[in-house]
Amino acid sequence: MKKAISIIHFSLFLFVVTGIVSCKKEAADTNASGNIPTNGWRIGSTSYTTLLALRNVGQPNSVGAFDAVPTANNLNTVVVLFNNTTGIAAGTFKVVTKPNQSDLLADEIMVSASTGYNQGTGQYNKQYVTVVGETVNATVTISGGKAKIVVPQINIISYPINASSTTSTFSGTIVEQ
Question: PROSITE patterns recorded for this chain (predicted)?
Fold first, then answer.
């Protein structure tokens, strides 16, 4: 999980260097069934619209999504990690939590969400991982070389996992730009 967290921090540096200066946060649209946002993600009842989504954010075989530029306070992010051997590919993947990206099997992905980045402290208010034992499958399609990852509602827990951890739900559609 430390790799997933370091991915998020590295991505902040990456975007500061690129000099992106505009952002917009609003409720994400939902698909026809109303369950999965079509351009972003939802944690509990709060929706986030993707401003940027890029491949290899801090780690190879990852896709990171951001609702604002990393220079903004209160940045919220999602990082999806794929198996290091097979990489980002189309198909159906089990959403799991494992200690390291290298532990993922070819048919597994990890989803890590973070909310409320504070520039003053360099920390997120909350970081989440999938609850161990979940049995949800995500769908990945590739179009024009860009990945689209659709994650149905899944239970998540704040990280690090301990007695004071809180649980919520996550769903989303991350479209690489």
Answer: PROKAR_LIPOPROTEIN
CA 141, chain centre distance (Å): 16
pLDDT tens string 105-130: 999 999 999 999 999 999 999 999 99
Query: How much is the pTM?
Result: 0.81
- What's the per-residue H, E or C state across the chain? CHHHHHHHHHHHHHHHHHCCCCCCCCCCCECCCCCCECCEEEECCEEEECCEEEECCCCCCEEEEECCCCCCCCCCEEEEEECCCCCCCCEEEEEECCCCHHHCCCCEEEEEEEECCECCCCECCEEEEECCCCCCEEEEEEECCEEEEEEEEEEEEECCCCCCCCEEEEEEEEECC
Span 141-152, average pLDDT: 97
Delimit the domains of the chain by residue range. 2-175
* 29 — pLDDT class (breaks 50, 70, 90): very low
Quickly tell me which residue has 């024009």 as its tokens: 144
CB 20 within 8 A of CB 153: no
pLDDT-based confidence at 71, cuts 50/70/90? confident
**CA-CA-CA-CA torsion for 56, 41, 77, 71, nearest 10 degrees?**
110
